[in-house]
Design brief:
This protein has about 190 residues and is mainly β. It is built from no helices and 15 strands.
């Protein structure tokens, strides 16, 4: 399914039937997008959208590529293999806990954006500034990397094998329940707790 749209009030997809294998959305200046789904790949490039509600009740795509700015919310996001997210001035993105975490999650987040329930099985990569990432408390990636500056906050960071942190003027809260085998931390004017 390919959707390119500009200046709509509401875009609602009938996801009662099977989800398409691939969904590509390019959207600008829309109030809300509802019931978006895909079974293999979801690629969203959007700006100035009220909200995007993903229907992850029956399908979770293998790969999600998300590049959005100037939005309010994206809800129920999931991927089984790879999640690549770039956010700029996005109030809240939530990853659903109904599906297992993707193997790889790469999150680039700036300008007052936030992600809830971020997780990965193998590798969690977080980079950004002036934003907040809340990592899932139920899953720990094997490897976690954080590159933060100018007010990035990461909560509940954990890994089972290795954690790498390079932070300037940032706050990283490590979960106390699990410790990595290796920790490599470089911090300037930051709190790592």
């Amino acid at each position: 399914m390919y959707i390119a749209t500009d200046r709509l009030g509401l875009l609602s997809i009938d996801s009662a039937a099977a989800c398409p294998k691939k969904t590509f959305l390019a959207a600008r200046s829309i109030q809300n997008i509802e019931n978006l789904c895909a079974s293999e790949e979801m690629n969203i490039a959007a700006t100035t959208i009220g909200s995007i509600a993903i229907d992850s009740s029956t399908a979770c795509p293998r790969k999600v590529l998300l590049s959005i700015q100037n939005m309010t919310t994206v809800s129920n996001l999931c991927a089984s293999e790879e999640m690549n997210i770039t956010l700029r001035n996005v109030m809240n993105v939530s990853v659903t806990a109904s599906w297992p975490c993707p193997k790889l999650a790469a999150l680039k987040i700036t300008q007052n954006s936030s992600i809830a329930n971020a997780c990965a099985q193998d590798s969690l990569e977080i980079s950004g500034s002036n934003s907040t990432v809340n990592v899932s408390v139920s899953d720990c990636a094997a490897f976690a990397t954080v590159i933060g500056s100018d007010g990035l906050t990461v909560n509940n960071l954990c890994s089972t094998n290795e954690t790498r942190i390079q932070a300037t003027n940032s706050t990283i809260h490590m979960t106390k329940s699990r410790c990595p085998l290796v920790a490599n931390i470089t911090a300037t004017d930051s709190a790592i707790v």
